[in-house]
Specification:
about 220 residues, alpha+beta, Muramoyl-pentapeptide Carboxypeptidase, domain 2, 4-stranded antiparallel β-sheet, two-stranded antiparallel ribbon, 6 helices, 6 strands, about 15% strand, binds zinc ion
Length: about 220
């Protein structure tokens, strides 16, 4: 009970932060940017070691591993093109998402959010859902929470997982794009998942499998 109340308090605060930051955002040559200004110097190690996770806290393993994974993720850009790295991480996530549904681990989006939380990957919630797709936010995302504005979103893997899960749940093709991220100056990540291929006549996307996706409640997460 205490945990639920604490989580509800954090979610409320994060929703307010998100709404405020969206009001302050700017569109620079097609890239949405939040209120934190882009980094005007080369990235240094302390940028990678700062991890903002007031809800989850940061355990010893995360302290050691997160900077390593961040360095890996960002350095990958100098090896391939940004597009190729994004495709690689997105497709890896896509496979995982599909696998989670096929193995019965994830039965709806609430399940996915629960899995994210239990594994300390972030606080995930669906903020909008309908026939065309879903808007999903992640607060305190494991890899990006605390990064400076690098003028790029960095959570392509998560976008892939969401697309894979939706594909598995609805037997339809979804695309998912991270539109807001710590890496573009926000204090949260936001993903837009859109339906690409049509689904069966009258299929209700708001009820993925059995349970209703309750857009306002955190019940069962
Ligand atoms: Zn992100």
């Amino acid at each position: 009970m205490l945990h639920r109340r604490r989580k509800a308090k954090f979610l409320k605060k994060y929703r307010e932060v998100a709404e405020r930051e969206i009001k302050e955002e700017v569109n620079v040559e097609g890239l949405l940017q939040g209120p934190r200004k882009p980094l005007d110097r080369p990235l240094n190690p302390s940028d990678l070691t700062f991890i903002y996770r007031p809800f989850f806290g940061v355990n010893e393993a995360e302290h050691r591993l997160i900077p390593y994974f961040r360095a890996y993720l960002l350095a990958s850009n100098s090896v391939g093109t940004r597009e190729s790295i994004n495709t690689l991480t997105y497709n890896s996530g896509l496979s995982l998402g599909l696998y989670l549904v096929e193995r019965g681990v994830v039965k709806d989006l609430l399940n996915l959010a629960g899995l994210w939380e239990v594994n300390r990957l972030g606080l995930m919630e669906v903020v909008r859902g309908g026939r065309e797709g879903f808007t999903i936010r992640v607060y305190e995302g494991l890899l990006c929470s605390g990064l400076p504005n690098l003028k790029r979103t960095v959570c392509g893997f998560v976008a892939g997982v969401i697309a894979g899960v939706l594909k598995g749940l609805h037997n339809a093709v979804f695309t998912c794009r991270e539109v807001r991220c710590w890496g573009t100056g926000y204090s949260f990540c936001e993903f837009n998942a859109r339906l690409l291929a049509p689904v069966k006549y009258q299929q209700n996307l708001e009820k993925p499998v059995g349970k209703t996706v309750n857009l306002s409640s955190t019940r069962g997460v």
